[in-house]
Amino acid sequence: VNAAQPAPCIGVLALQGAFTAHEDALRSLHVTTRQVRTPADLTQVAALVMPGGESTTMARLLETSQMFDELSARISAGMPVFGTCAGMILLAKEVLDGRTDQRSFGAIDIGVRRNGYGRQVDSFETDVEVSGLDRPFHAVFIRAPKVVTTGTAVEVLATHDGVPVLARQGHIMVASFHPEITADARLHQMFLQHNGFTTEHRSTSTERG
Ligand code: GLN
Question: Whose C-alpha lies nearest to ligand 1, atom 8?
């Protein structure tokens, strides 16, 4: 143990959307977090969570804040990223029903359809079995993207009605649902541990299933 080594900082993209609950989830694992709004913020973080929100807005704000290309380069260089809902859309290789000028990072070999669970079903909740977890995870879907294709390099970690809802390819992990709003940080922990970060999980009077 090297006591002089500063703890790595985990960034949460904070341009728009549901970022504060992600910070809470990360803090519950005793990791240092930082809100990322500028290219300078980005240089300070070792990994990034991209939250839910509105992917078209987030993509535009990534451009206007001069972060899109920086972030793209960091992702190519191996920075771990966990994208949830709109964040999943931003990381996907192919986006269906996006805006025509909507850019994505193409960091994971999946195709997603925005709002793919149907307009009439704005949101729903269900328990999903996650490989590697001993209890189901309560998944809250809000105008969620639906995975329509997965490449062979993609590891599907959970499905709902046969459709992947949690997936990973190397250092990139994505969820179509919102894992940050259930006070259950097991997926954040899985993301961090998979990428070699140390976490400490206090289990859990606050979790609900
Ligand atoms: N429908 C939103 C989008 O297309 C995603 C919704 C969410 O992140 N909860 O960006």
Answer: 52
Residue 208 has a pLDDT of 43
Give the count of beta carbons closer than 10 Å to the beta carbon of residue 86: 28
Give the H/E segment covering residue 21.
helix 19-28
Closest CA to 114 of 61, 180, 174, 176: 176
Question: Which position has the token pair 């859990």?
Answer: 204
Pocket test for ligand 1, best of 142, 165, 176, 177 (most atoms within 8 A of CB): 142
Whole-structure pTM value: 0.93
Rounded Cα gap, residues 122 and 118, in angstroms: 7
- 98 CB under 6 A from ligand 1? no
Each residue's pLDDT tens digit, 67-103: 999 999 999 999 999 999 999 999 999 999 988 888 8
Integer angstrom CA distances of residue 78 from 117, 151, 206: 31, 19, 33
**Whole-number Å distance between alpha carbons of 76 and 120:** 37
- DSSP calls for 95-161: EETS-TT------EEEEEETTTT-SS--EEEEEE--TT-SS-EEEEEES--EEEEE-TTPEEEEEET
Q: Give the 3-state secondary structure of residue 206.
A: coil
Q: Tell me how far CA of residue 29 lies from CA of 23, 43, 162, 195, 199, in angstroms.
A: 10, 22, 31, 15, 5
CA gap 101, 149 in Å, rounded = 21
